[in-house]
Every structure is written in C-alpha cells, then in structure tokens.
Amino acid sequence: CDGVSPFQAFCVGLASRVGTGNIAGVAIALTVGGPGAIFWMWVVAAIGMATALIEATLGQIFKVRADDGSFRGGPAYYIQRGLGSRAGGVVFAILLIFTFGIAFNMVQANAISDVVNGAYAIDVRWITAGLVILAAPVLFGGVRRVAQVAEIVLPLMAVVYALLALVIVALNISYLPEVL
C-alpha cells in the first residue's frame, strides 16, 4: 500500500486531538476547580465531540478525488467548497500549518518538560534534547512514518490511559458524590 490506511488515518487524527494538554489540562482543572470541575469538563467534552462529528462529516462530504485515485479533504476544502471561500480555505490552511507545525508542538513539549523537571529535577534542556531525539526520526520520515508510529503507539496509549483512569477513580471513589 502506497498510502496511509484508514486505521492509520484514524490514529493520526485521534493523536492530533488527544495529547499531553488533555492530561495536564485535567490535572490543572482538578487542582484549581476541585472535583466539581469534572462535570464542566464533561459538558465541554460533549460540545467538542459534537463539533468533531460535524468536522468529520463535512470532511467526507466535501473531499475530492486526486488524479492518483487518493482523496484529499479537510477543513480547508470544506471552507473553500462548502462556503465558497477560497481565501478562507487558504487562510485556514496557513494557520493550521503554523498551529500544528509549531505552536502545538511547543505547548506539548513545554508541558512534558515542566512535568518531568518538577518530578525529577532534570534540566529542561536535557528533556528537550530527548524529545527531539525521539521525535526527529518519526517526523523526518514523512506522513507515512508518522502514521505507522501512531498506529502502534495510539492504541497502547489509549489502553494505558484508560487503565490509569480506572485506578485513579477506584482510589478516589469516595469523592464521587462531590463530582456529581
């Protein structure tokens, strides 16, 4: 197969939505807002799931077939084709490249560095160097390598995340009434 499989595309898409920001964000919300913050995270998650469903649906409706038989689509395409705004699609694509190519990576790296530095007092420069060494072979391998790694790492990460969440809930079951 020359392209990315549907499961790999799913893994890459899911990995772009769930990251260290989700984990750090939950911890910060619980620290600042207490157990009641979980209710509001549920409300925001429901809205987020609804918008993700609409984004995915629009992506399918407005995708186009390329000359090689593959499909191309996404927000830039449905902004251009659905709203009739080529300029809006171009602006969105440029902002997306900056956001995912630079900004989100810095936020994720900062969250990881801060947590590791706080827990183990390892200098942030060493943590950053380690992240670069781990990520560079994947990123420089192109979209297919990213998809191959995501296909392996994402299911493993999801299982570990779910198990840890269940353990944390079990250890703090007495707080359940406050959460609700």
Q: Widest sheet: strand order?
A: 1-2
Unreliable segments (pLDDT under 50, ≥5 consecutive)?
Answer: none
End-to-end gap: 48 Å
Shape label: globular
Give the strand content.
Answer: under 5%
Work out the helicity level.
Answer: over 70%
Average of per-residue pLDDT values: 90
Helix-strand category: mainly alpha
Succession of helices and strands: HHHEEHHHHH
Largest sheet: 2 strands, antiparallel
Count, helices: 8
Radius of gyration (CA) equals: 19 Å
The count of β-strands is 2
Can you walk me through this structure?
This protein is mainly alpha-helical and 180 residues long. The chain has helices at 6-17, 20-33, 37-61, 75-83, 86-120, 124-139, 142-171, 176-179; strands spanning 64-65, 71-72. Strands 1-2 form a two-stranded antiparallel ribbon. A hairpin with a 5-residue loop joins β1 (64-65) and β2. α1 (6-17) packs across α7 (142-171) and α5 packs across α6 (124-139). The mean pLDDT is 90.
